[in-house]
Structure formats: structure tokens, C-alpha cells
Amino acid sequence: MTGPGESTQKRPVTLDDVARAAGVSQPTASRVLNGSSRRVAPSYRERVLSAARELGYTPNLPAQAMARGTSRTIALVISLISDPYFSAMAAEIMKQAEAIGLHVSIAVTERQAERELDLIRELRGQQPRAIILAGTGYVDPPSEQALIDELQRYEETGGRVVLISRSDLPFETVDFDNHAGSRQLARELAALGYRNCLVLGSDTPLLSMRQRVEGFVTGLTESGVTGTRVHEPGFSWAGAREYILGLSDAEARALDLVFAVTDDMALGALAGLRERGLRVPEDVGVAGFDDISTLRDVVPKLTTVHVALNAVAQEAVYRATTTDEVLTRRTVPAYPVIRASTPQL
Q: Which residues does residue 303 pair with via DSSP β-bridges, in sequence order?
């Protein structure tokens, strides 16, 4: 009997219930019941279908559409749309997606780990075909496990998750080697004669930016250059410019190279140096990382580390839409391009 105030309504049967009854994982049950094109062994398939019939499970229709690949939207999560690197990345991913008839929706984290988590929760409800996270990972983020849990739940309903330049989470990854690219750039600049170097990192605790700093310092050390100064100004064009303007005259004139972890920051440093009356490259060299397209308008041409964003975007969209069960991590090369901003000393 039902006591006073008690409801006689049973809770809906969930996918977890079916998976437990069938003795399979939830992703396997999802592939069977939500119509995924990924293969499931016949014995597992029959167990799942039998358990679903016995429990009276009703499939989630939006999840079926996503699992069958009929959702036409890919969700792209980036850090900042105003950042030249991320705007270029978004443009390349949209181009690749549109070539195969898909649309891209863009969500912006503003480089906030908690906002990133909130956005993923919202996207799960919208159930796009795939989620691509192109924002860089954080150093010791407090919400990392919660983010992993949300993304895994999304995958369990048939979606796919792809990370770009972010190897800190257990999902499909398209990476480029930030450490190796900046390390090789440092070695080549040391060979050109640069010794008194200032490295501008990021005051935001981002993994990829830390890797770039560490790689550059390692390359200089391997080349016999010691005493490199590393500072972490505001992570922007304005932050780099303000830091350069805050140096004493003696500090500024002692430099023969400024390396910034992004091209945007490198251009801010270049502006600050010129405002101080220093010539680039006659008095001091400047180098960055990313090789953003707007560098074609910069004088002198900026030395940087080139990242093939078209190849990164193509691989990310492929992994977001393929039905292959297991893919290996793909690393796209990042390599130095020496230009007029760092001539031979």
C-alpha cells in the first residue's frame, strides 16, 4: 500500500538501468538503443535489447538523432573570439564543417574554468553532434573532474568530444607541440647570437602557455644561454605593452630579444618598445608563437612558431564526425619561422 502523501508514480527507466540489467557499459547500451552506427557484438546487442524490453525502456529521441549522426551542429568551445588565434581557429573549423554540410555554434569561456564547465552542461542539453574544445587547458583547475564527468555523460548519449591543443583530458585530441616548437625557436635564435632574453608568459594559468615558456627556456639553456628573465604580464596585447613600458631604461636597453608566448602579445611588446624609442630589430629582436594571418601586415615581419591551423581544423572535424571507434592522438607539427624581426647579430 502507498502511505499518505506518497506518490504511486514510478521513476522513468534510464539507460543506466538497462546497462546494469544487461551487464554492459552505458556507452554500449547507448550504441544499441540510440541507433549509433558504431558496431556492437551481436551477443551484447541481444542482451541490451532484451533488458530494455523487460524494463520498458523508452529511448531518448534527441540522443538517437545525435548517435545516428543526424544532428547537423558541431559545438565549438573557445577561450576568446577577440583573440586572433581563436578567431582564425574558429574560421577554419567552420570552413571544414560547412564543406561536409554541418553547422558550427560557438561558445566562449572567457578563459574561466567554471564558465567552461557551465557551457558544457548547457551544450549537453542542446545535444549537438560533437563538441570541440579549442580552449587551452588550465594548470590545476578545481573543476577538472566535473568537466570530465560532463563530457563522458555526453559521449554516453552518442556524442563525440574532440580536444585541440589540450592533452590534459581523456578524449580524442588533436595537438601541436607547444614545448618542442618554442624550444626549437630558442635554439635557432641562440644560434643567431641572441643572449639577453626576456620571456613574456601568461598571468592566466594555462597549460599550453606554460609549455611554451618552459620549451623556450630549455632551448636557450641547451644553447648555453643562461639568466633568461621570465615574467607573466596580462595575457593580451595590452598586457605585454604595459609590461614593456614599465621596465626601467637600463632593463629595456640591456635586452636583445623579447619572446612572447603568442603573436598578439609579441605585437604588444613591439608597440611598447617603439614607444620607448627602441628600434625593432636594430636595438632589440621580437618573436612570438602561432603565426596568425594578420602578421602579413606587420613591419618588420615577425619571427614566430608556425601552427598549421587548417590541418588542425581538418583533423578535428574529421574526428568529430567519424564513426571509427578508436583513434590515436594526432600531433600537428609546430615549427619556427625566422623573419626580419630577429636578424643575425
A: 287
Neighbour tally for 25: CB within 10 Å = 12
- The one-letter amino acid code at 269 reads A
Q: Is the pLDDT of residue 219 over 90?
A: yes
Distance of CA 262 to the CA centre of its chain: 14
Residue 16 above 70 pLDDT?
A: yes
pLDDT for residue 327: 67
Sort 2 into a burial class: Cβ within 10 Å, 0-12 / 13-18 / 19+: exposed
Q: How confident is the model at residue 17 (pLDDT cuts 50, 70, 90)?
A: confident
Instruction: Single out the residue of 105, 116, 159 nearest to residue 141, CA to CA.
Output: 116
Beta-strand relationship, 160-164 and 130-133 = parallel
Task: Read off the pLDDT of each residue in 125-144 and give the average, rounded to a whole number.
Answer: 83
**pLDDT at res. 65:** 53
- In sequence order, which residues have a C-beta less than 8 Å from that of residue 260 and are 6 or more positions away? 199, 200, 240, 266, 268, 269, 286, 287, 288, 289
d(CA 169, CA 147): 9
Contact 176, 332 (CB under 8 A): yes
Are 46 and 33 spatial neighbours (Cβ–Cβ below 8 Å)? no
Using CA atoms, how far residue 50 sits from 12, 13, 222, in Å, is: 17, 14, 63
- What whole-number distance in Å separates Cα of residue 40 and Cα of residue 22? 13
